Fold these 2 entries.
Entry 1:
Amino acid sequence: MALVNRKIGYDEVETRDIKFKMDASKVSKHWFANDPWNTHFMNGIFAAVPDGERWVMQSVRKQLDSLTDPAIRKAGIEFIHQERIHAREHDIMNKACIEHGIPLDVIENNFKKVRVFLQKHLSDSAQGAVGAAFEHFTATIASVLIEHPEVFEDTNPELLGMLYWHFVEETEHKSVSFDVFTDATGAGTKSYLMRVSAMAAAGVVGGFVFVVPFGYLLYKDKQLTNFASAKRFFRTQFTNPGVLTKLGKMYFPFFRRDFHPWDDDNRAVIHAWKKEYNKSGDTTKAFHALCDWLAENKGLELPKQQGSVHALAV
Ligand SMILES: [Fe+2]
Ligand SMILES: [Fe+2]
């Protein structure tokens, strides 16, 4: 399966240099559905996004000269462009959170220290393997949230436009760092062992990246005892729709020898977004089109409250 899928997706990767102009009025203190726990869970991840994406970008750039396949090289260059723009826009979003008194800068600085240490001590190939693991996480988070926009009920429409642009592009390039690493390291047993070791380590480190900043932000925002929000968080992440549960299920296939990111071919849903974006150049309208596609093809039922994603999708 992996060999068949290896070539798909390269023609999907396309740079869109969009300036979203996020600020504290669009990114509210509890921007994720007015819910502190879900917001701070995502904030903890987003704090690592700009620096993490620049790291993966630099890693792909270093591997470009070792590539044998020109199609992978071309996709690698588009990948670098996309991640550069994602990092820029998420820096602005994180700054808006900091303006609300949420100390994302503390998490960013700690993540940066770890990144600098790893960048200094790991070989280029090992960093390539870490990049492939990192991108598997971002692609799986994106794939779950793309199919469940209902979790963002009452979230700012322009912010949703930005987030779904990022989720779509993470999906477009989900195989690129994997294929760059595999091609650059020769696709043999050593390459396989490096990528699964990196993923095993990333699973442990990822656990800390999920849990420690999350607890810290809840504490700083005095939300640790907000039990209503905690209940909503556990429902969203573990049962309905179960973002983390689905993420957990998508973690283990990466360890298969013949795994490839496009084994999960979810191009149809991003095509609905792209079709509308190519027509209107509007990420909010493109988000509506994605919701419509999900309602028609996956039976998605959107909330009915004013200002909800349902109001956006009609
Ligand atoms: Fe990204
Ligand atoms: Fe990415």
Entry 2:
Amino acid sequence: MAYPSTVRAIEDELARLAADHPDLCTRTTAPHRSHEGRSISYVTISGGEAGRPVLLTGGMHAREWAPPDVLLTLLDRLLRAYEAGADLVVPGFTDTAPARDIVYPEATIAAADVRRVVERLELSVLALINPDGRAFSQASAANAMWRKNRRPPAGSATTCRGVDLNRNFDLAWDFERYYDDAGDVAVSASNDPCDPQVYVGPSALSEPESRNVASILRERRAEFYVDVHSFSRKILFPWGMDSNQSRDPSQSFRNPQYDGRRDGGFGGRYGEFIPGDLLDAHVRIGTAMHDAMIQGAGDDPRARARSEYAVEPGLALYPTTGTASDYAASLQFVDDPIAERVVAYTLEIGMDTDGEGGFQPVPAIYPKIEREVHLALMAFLSAAAG
Ligand SMILES: [Zn+2]
């Protein structure tokens, strides 16, 4: 599959993976078609009985071209290594951009770890959440920075299309009710359909593309989740909507007493509750992902510096509501929880410096980003497999 893949190439690759590995890989059509009528499919990899449910997603934001590709190549490597009883090999890479010659060595994930991941997990991968957006973003240079989906304009309007799917999930979606005035200003969310970046949509989970993610999380009862985005070299864990605290369970998204009083910042009077052991688990697994990328970078300090991902709460990027990974984590605290414990991340891959191209890595640097994501996600899956 050639990077950056088209919408069609992604669907074809999902079909090929299922056809080539029928005993291990099942392709399922997600329940909702996109606004433009595209069918959206995902695969589930399972080599054992009653594996622990895990979900990986990508392609939520149209302009972020690398995440679907790195997810599909990871599946290809994982399935081939498993069937061969071999190590998963992450090829070396030499960055030959001008004034640099930085070598990233070959890295391997042991065959025993590959086997644990495939046999102990039920691993679902929705590689492309937002096919309409990707098709639009790839159609012309003028569209390349499109982020949202392609929801048609409301009523008789002819402009202002699209919803930011990563603000549309059902968690603090109604941000004006949720925050105080300062929080309303700080939060990266908008009620304006013409906002080109962060329009939250007409209602929570109004979009077929976000409903697909929510329905897979719920139906499969995902206990581990990573939503892959570009860019900023960050491994973000809950919460994104406010600062974390582990002392007062009543300070919770579920508690309407705090409506209009949440500040959405560090050090304010409100902090979102996260149990201490859950916070510790996120830091521990996030650190394992970080360490896998650093070790994979080898000995060259320039390679290591360019592989340094920050492990931090989502709020460290900016306050956000209605994101997929926070929503997934919230599903352990609602009345009908999907699991006793849910561990969820947003992984922001690549960088806009170091010649990496930000939202759209240039093809020459893409193998570096692909390899670091494979190392990080294999560490994540290994932790999930226990
Ligand atoms: Zn994104």
